[in-house]
Amino acid sequence: MITARAAASFDPVGRSVAIARAFVRDTLQGWGYADVVDDAVVLTSELVTNAVVHAGTKADVLCLRADDGVRVEVADRYPEREVPLLGSPADIAGPDRENGRGLLLCAALASRWGVEYTPTRKNVWFQLDLPNRAVGTRSAGPALPTALLPVTDGRVRVAVVQIDRAGAVRAWNEDAEELFGYAAEQVTGKALTDFAAWPHTPGTSTGIVEALQLSRWEGTYGIRGADGRVVPVYASHLRVRDTEGEPSTVCLLVRDDERAVLQTPVRPPAADPAALGENRSADPFEVFIGSPAPDDLDGLLQRTVERARDMLDGDSAFLLLATDDETELEVRATTGLPSARQRFARVPVEAGTGRYGSARMPAVHEDLAAVPGAVPLLDSTGMRSVVTVPLKVEGRLTGSLGVAAESPGRYSNEEALRLQFAADRIALAVESARLGELERLRRGSLSFLVEASDLLAGTLDRDQTLALMAQMTVPTLATWCAVYTIADQASDPYLSYVLHEDEERIDGLKALLSKINPPEPVPTPGARVWAAPGEAAHQAALRISMRDLGRNGSPHTGGGLGTTLSTAAAVGGETVVLPLVARNRVIGMLTLGKPSDDHFRQEILELAEDLSRRAALALDNARLYSERMAISRSLQRSLLPPGLPQIPGVEVEVIYRAAGEGNEVGGDFYDLFPIRDGAYGFAIGDVCGTGPEAAAVTGLARHALRLLAREGFGGPAVLERLNAAILDEGARSRFLTLLYGELWPQEDGSAILKIVCAGHPLPLRLRQDGSVEPAADPQPLLGVMDDLELYEQTITLDPGDVLLCVTDGITERREGTRMLGDDGLADVLATCTGLTAGAVAARVLRAVERFAAEPASDDMAILTMRIPEQDKR
């Protein structure tokens, strides 16, 4: 009877085979069929390969669970391609052929198997029966004397936490409250990721979210307790579903040193002990290796050191991996040692002189007290005797495995041979997993750098660039970071930005870094260790601890002690500095830090160095852009009038919009200035083009108008001399349309204007009755002909009248083929009767902006003058 089913389809690509294997493995383990997982995975791999590689079609995999076993079906979409059978011509080709091997394996491994054809698909299935086993028996270990049983401090507590589909805590038992300090109501509904301390390494390992989605998972991580400390736990996750089909994950958690309660026992291989050889009879290495996932390097290494320690009955064990140049060893897994302090620390391969100072050879140290420094990793750990052996692949050093004990004289050459035999068996698997991790890390690093480059290229703002640098670094590469900037070669580094993954620690970290001297701006590439923050935090914590000690010798809980100790823990690990070098100049430093004696792994430092180069260039580009914009704004502001004068009896309003990002002034300009007592000049013009070139002619025109008008020249003479000055510019000259006028307010409340319109859109006059008419006649523009004959026209603005002057950016506003034009502008102005000068200008601008959806591509200027009505009281 079929009790459960799981199905998936896989595309006809090579990677689908590995994905199908993982699907079948997770499904069967989730059903509790670990006894047949290996056979099922092997058969599935062969059949899916036949489908996606040889048949070249999608593969449909169906897993069926029954009480007595499991059935797996693999179907492809190529029914015309017959399956080669035993004794067929294909079989005669020999055992090295590339097709049909899956059926041979089915015949050898499966309880039953068969092939089914339909007009559209071919289905190959196999069934694996469960082995007979006594009720309640799963696996068992040997009977041990009481003295050899694991020691616990007291009652063993097993926290049971149920996580729903969204990753939130649904259930939290009493043991979880005791282990971690949170009551159930404090955590229910919150995401497990809020409490789980999971490694942040880009491109490697499985994250907590992914682990919760697997049908079964075992491993080690941490839970942040209510007191802020991380409790190392060993976890066993099982994904289940309720009667309504809703999935959830049940997590069983114990303290890491009590992992034997949950850890799945590993069955030894069914081989003849006599054939194992004398070195293997006591501890077959299959038990030593365990069964971690093939791509889980951390799990493989951790299980290796734990089995090594147990195999030699040691107090601690460690495994180090060699760098690519084989000059250093990096700590990757330890047990029985302060792993938080040692992880990713580096030690030299050649620790001293002589044969036993090198990690390339097996070594036994009977008493480390007699040879201090022989094994740097064990300094100040209390370990006295140690045996270390190399891990080698094809004669190349790939790592080192060691087991240590607290008592001297515990190990001899016999233990070294046993450990070396184990190391030889595990070396290839470790190197394969390491290369796989390195490849994933490199892929993750490339993705990280591409995304970082895109983000940094998307802004030219200095402050935003600093924030992006920090946010991309924390927490992906480091726990906290600080960015120092250098304004110029004569300036000292300045602390510009600080970020910590815990926002509550940012202020304390910033205060700490502000009290110490910044790192030296050394241009040498690469990361260098900076010890000052850790030392400063440690000293501050000691001073406050001594100051806050009470009479009974216990520290007060209040005051600054908690904050300072928190800051000390935040910067207590390794701190490195990377120079920010751009255009052969050090413009700052990027500082990265780890908490609680953590170390950076070399791959992370190399990734940080790549990021620092990109960030330095982006930061320098932002600096150059800021300087350019500051200069540009300063020059552009000099082209605008400093302010509008107050004209008695006349309301004046100006609105100016320059086209182009960051431009305050373009080809359009305006001016309003006093000429002499009672007389005022005004101008509005448009230089051909936009941008800095047009702005240069703008400056020439505006300053020439003021100078010539104040010399007493009339409107035509002013424009004729300006025309000559523009032509004298030669190739830099530009066409210029200009409306220039002089204004005389009168005692009766009116105003007299004399206007010259040189090629400019005509000014419009709005009367009190709502009529609109041009206020001048068109005349030739400037910058084209040497000899101009211009004349001025005189008009009188009565109380309530409005004079509207605009540039062609207003009248030539377009939406597709439509254009606002002079008539459209006149229609808008006709609706402005009774409005103030400011309201008229605002309504015109609003009408122009609403006329088209696209941003304006030309400069726009609006100058309105209105004669207010006389007070009739």
Automatic annotation (TrEMBL):
Q: What is this protein called?
A: Phosphoserine phosphatase RsbU
Please list the GO terms describing molecular function: phosphatase activity
Q: What is its EC number?
A: 3.1.3.3
What SUPFAM superfamilies does the record point to? Answer: GAF domain-like, PP2C-like, PYP-like sensor domain (PAS domain)
Q: Which InterPro entries match?
A: Bact_Sigma-Reg, GAF, GAF-like_dom_sf, HATPase_C_sf, HATPase_dom, PAS, PAS-like_dom_sf, PAS_4
Q: Which residues form the PAS domain?
A: 160-192
Organism, scientific name: Streptomyces hundungensis
Q: Which CDD domains match?
A: HATPase_RsbW-like (cd16936), PAS (cd00130)
Q: Which Pfam families match?
A: GAF_2, GAF_3, HATPase_c_2, PAS_4, SpoIIE
Listed A to Z, the keywords are:
Hydrolase
NCBIfam families in UniProt: sensory_box
